[in-house]
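User: My instructor asked us to take a sequence, write out its structure as tokens, and then describe one feature of it. I'm not sure where to start. Here is the sequence I was given:
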Amino acid sequence: MSISEKPLAAEGAAAGERSCWPILQQPRGLIVYMGLLLFATLFLFGAAAALTTVTLVDIVTFLALTVCAGICVEAIRRLGVPAGLARDLLGAWWFPIVLLLPPVYSIIVPVPVFLLLQLRARRALAHRRVFNATAIGLSGFLASVVWHSVAADGLWDALGGAPDAHDSLTTGAGVLIAVLCCAGFTVLNTILVALAARISMGPGASLRPMWDREACTVDAVELCVGVTVAILAQLSLFLLAIAVPPVLLLQRSLLFQQLQMAARTDPKTGLLNAPTWEQEASVEIARARSGRGTAAVLIIDIDHFKRVNDNYGHLFGDQVLLGVATTIAQQLRQSDLLGRFGGEEFVVLLPGSDTSEAWHAAERLRAQVGCMEISVDDVPVSITVSIGAAVIGEHGNDLVELLTAADLALYRAKETGRNRVCLPAGRPGAPGTIPGPREGNLSGRGGPSGEVE
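Assistant: Let's start with the prediction itself. The structure tokens for your sequence are:
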């Protein structure tokens, strides 16, 4: 796994507020965290290099596995690389190096591979590439030390590598230990990436894509493939020729799936993008109409978002977008449909909700966003949203009519003071009064209630 690596072109929107060193624009905690990891990795590399005896067999094995990884990078370049957190199956080549070579090689191998990724696949911010290489190198080094310590006389000898450690790959117990060491590699790398993402995005960031069932399945497949390749390479390096094609096929299938998902989702928030949301919402509304059911549409707009960007920068604005998206998603049912409509607007489809239920749902979302904790340099920044709601049968009969009505209601909410929920005015059948608080804080600390006009 790698931390989000946006292409350089995607960073151009914030170029006016960046210095010539983009890493200096990152949160201070992230800079310290990356620096500590890099220092620890370089220190361990120096210590291990001093204890490692370089042999021709090790060099040939290292070069062979690095070339195989380079072939996979070339395949990634031809298919395309999705932005964001990526799983590329390169672990099929990290793991054999962990198991077959002294630990120092585990720190070295990410350098040429990520350099090739930068030059051939997609140019990304240098500090993110360095962090990803550091996280993989450090995780692989520690896993390799544990692996070699089983065959070495002690931890000190394991740092230089146990010459006969790879021989145990031909035994059942050795394979089991290899699987456990490689699993530790995966877990540690995921934790390092998750910590970086949490520091960068803030405590409100959702990290579920790193730990969900699909991610664990991919990690398990990568683990099995990597250990299998290590066993083949232990028998003969020539067997790598038959290992590369199936790895390429698995990698192509995995990346194709990720690219399909990327085409459906918004890169900043991970929500459905506008075309995908509209397509799925239209199906849900048609199903509700055919079954004489109900459904509601909410359009949610972040108040004064341009002012947030102007005052605190686009990077903080991205954190606000992600925080609002995460907060909204946590308050919705599994059947609800959430998407980013563009800019600072989000859309929600609430199947089975009538006017009263839609109103209460919108008020709950508004209140929860208002309670978000987002700060710049330890100074809290208040974020509020305005919401327009429309219900099928009450304010429209298809998605276009509902979006139009909800947009008009949102305009009224912004005109009448923002940080409130509104329904369309003048639609026959709309109730005169909506139960529950209309605006202000739901905890009862103030804020007037009102009626639908």
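For the description part of your assignment, you could build on this observation: The longest helix spans residues 172-201. Try explaining in your own words what that tells you about the chain.
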